[in-house]
């Protein structure tokens, strides 16, 4: 396969702004060239303050999605729900939370794909079901969703959204079995990476895909059960963390308590490596490994694999700070705050000019001139996507007077799109897919460039200790080895389908 390669200077300014905000959704029209957040889910069973707990849980998961938020509660008879566009604190206030009465709830924060930022796709999705009501919230992507959707439409199904999640609802509704067995049958038809929370008037179901690609953790608050995409959301409500949900597992919670079951046997374990590298909060734990500690080990291993003599180490905030500390500790080179993040760069109604787009990184980051001027700087970052933001940050440091800028990336080169929930560009837009490391170094204007090896990544996360293939990680975005089938006759799609 051949690709036409265009440098950043040759690319025309794309016209992709079709929503209310310039930098909502995805695509190269975004000011900031970074991988897009996934979604986050939060569930409560058996607590009278379920809606309030969900609010705080979703607030802790805000980094996983900033486009929309929603909470649906059940009181044993009826559903009550509220969804809206924007941040959790913008969608909910105390009156809305107070109106959501019930002891069972599911909540969702969403990052939309392809600029498809519409309230109809905000979750949880709520349906009228033959036995009552049904609400579903998910994090992930169903790879074979287009094929299933086409088959369902040919058989008379009418879809109300473009969300992958609605496919599951239709599959359940068409089954003649009871809700639990219908859900298990439906889940077996799905290919991809997903973590589902499904709620009826009297039941809560929790399920993850057979590879465990998307994270989900269970905790307890008193007698109540709580579930979240990350453990940090359980910590914030004072929950005791019990365990991660296992691949292919389905939990059923109702008046009889908790039933631990599964809809399929677990397959090759393949938790998304980018959770450790970038997405999850550093205070979260996954598979028994703390994210901050894992990232520090990535930085330390990076120093061993690609040491460079320098005057200071700085990390691109926020996800690379831990790795930068690890690199500094390993080398003895001082760690400094050479880059400062503006935490208030929300969505903007103003479309910047091309000139301002090139300077757009300054909306988000500032270099500390008194720290970097005249210094040889090691800049630690978690990944390079298109290369445009890396080039802008390197130039930011140079403009602040850095004598040298050496870039160290604490992941392998990102060469392939993700089909399991990370909203990634087309392969042809991923700079590592068509340029050598030397060419990338020149493209981003760095003095040197190095990436963490796959083995170094697995070792840093602690995966070699598990005995699982590739440490139980999905590394497909680096090595093109996908744990599931991704080609369904041209009907496949990447990104986050929720």
Q: What does this protein structure show overall?
A:
It comes from Paenibacillus wynnii. The protein has 498 residues and is an alpha+beta fold. The chain has two domains: 228 residues, Aminohydrolase, N-terminal nucleophile (Ntn) domain (Glutamine Phosphoribosylpyrophosphate, subunit 1, domain 1, 4-Layer Sandwich); 191 residues, 3-Layer(aba) Sandwich (Rossmann fold). It is built from 17 helices and 23 strands. The strands form six sheets. Strands 3-2-4-1-10-9-11 form a seven-stranded antiparallel β-sheet. Strand 9 and strand 10 form a beta hairpin. The chain is globular and about 70 Å long.
Question: In short, what is this structure?
Answer:
With 498 residues, the chain is an alpha+beta fold. It has two domains: 40-267, Aminohydrolase, N-terminal nucleophile (Ntn) domain (Glutamine Phosphoribosylpyrophosphate, subunit 1, domain 1), CATH 3.60.20.10; 289-479, Rossmann fold.
């Amino acid at each position: 396969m051949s690709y036409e390669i265009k440098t950043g200077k040759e690319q025309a300014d794309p016209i992709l702004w079709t929503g209310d905000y310039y930098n909502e959704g995805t695509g190269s029209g975004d000011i900031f060239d970074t991988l897009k957040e996934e979604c986050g889910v939060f569930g409560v069973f058996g607590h009278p303050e379920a809606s309030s707990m969900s609010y705080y849980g979703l607030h802790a998961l805000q980094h996983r999605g900033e486009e929309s938020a929603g909470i649906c509660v059940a009181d044993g008879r009826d559903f009550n729900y509220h969804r809206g566009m924007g941040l959790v604190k913008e969608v909910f206030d105390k009156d809305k939370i107070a109106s959501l009465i019930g002891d069972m709830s599911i909540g969702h924060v969403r990052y939309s794909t392809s600029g498809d930022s519409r309230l109809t796709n905000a979750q949880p999705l709520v349906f009228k079901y033959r036995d009552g009501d049904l609400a579903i919230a998910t994090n992930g992507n169903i790879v074979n969703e287009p094929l299933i959707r086409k088959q369902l439409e040919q058989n008379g199904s009418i879809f109300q959204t473009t969300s992958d999640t609605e496919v599951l609802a239709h599959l359940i509704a068409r089954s003649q079995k009871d809700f639990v067995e219908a859900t298990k049958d439906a889940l077996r038809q799905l290919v991809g990476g997903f973590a589902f929370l499904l709620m009826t008037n009297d039941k809560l179901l929790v399920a993850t895909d057979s590879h465990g690609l998307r994270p989900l953790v269970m905790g307890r608050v008193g007698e109540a059960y709580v579930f979240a995409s990350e453990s940090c959301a359980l910590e914030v409500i004072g929950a005791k963390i019990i365990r991660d949900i296992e691949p292919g597992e389905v939990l059923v919670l109702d008046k009889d308590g908790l039933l631990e079951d599964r809809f399929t046997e677990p397959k090759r374990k393949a938790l998304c490596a980018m959770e450790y590298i970038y997405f999850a909060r550093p205070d979260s734990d996954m598979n028994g490994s703390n994210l901050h500690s894992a990232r520090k080990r990535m930085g330390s291993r990076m120093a061993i694999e690609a040491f460079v003599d320098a005057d200071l180490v700085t990390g691109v905030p926020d996800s690379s700070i831990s790795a930068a500390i690890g690199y500094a500790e390993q080398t003895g080179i001082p760690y400094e705050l050479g880059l400062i993040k503006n935490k208030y760069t929300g969505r903007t109604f103003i479309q910047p000019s091309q000139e301002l787009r090139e300077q757009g990184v300054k909306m988000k980051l500032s270099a500390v001139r008194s720290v970097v001027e005249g210094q040889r700087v090691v800049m630690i970052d978690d990944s390079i996507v298109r290369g445009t933001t890396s080039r802008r940050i390197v130039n930011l440091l140079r403009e602040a007077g850095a004598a040298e800028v050496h870039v160290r990336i604490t992941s392998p080169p990102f060469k392939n799109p993700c089909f399991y929930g990370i909203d990634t560009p087309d392969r042809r837009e991923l700079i590592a897919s068509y340029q050598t490391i030397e060419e990338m170094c020149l493209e981003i204007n760095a003095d040197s460039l190095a990436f963490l090896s796959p083995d170094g990544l697995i070792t840093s996360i602690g995966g070699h200790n598990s005995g699982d293939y590739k440490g139980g990680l999905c590394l497909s975005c680096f090595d093109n080895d996908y744990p599931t089938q991704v080609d369904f006759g041209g009907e496949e799609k990447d990104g986050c389908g929720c």
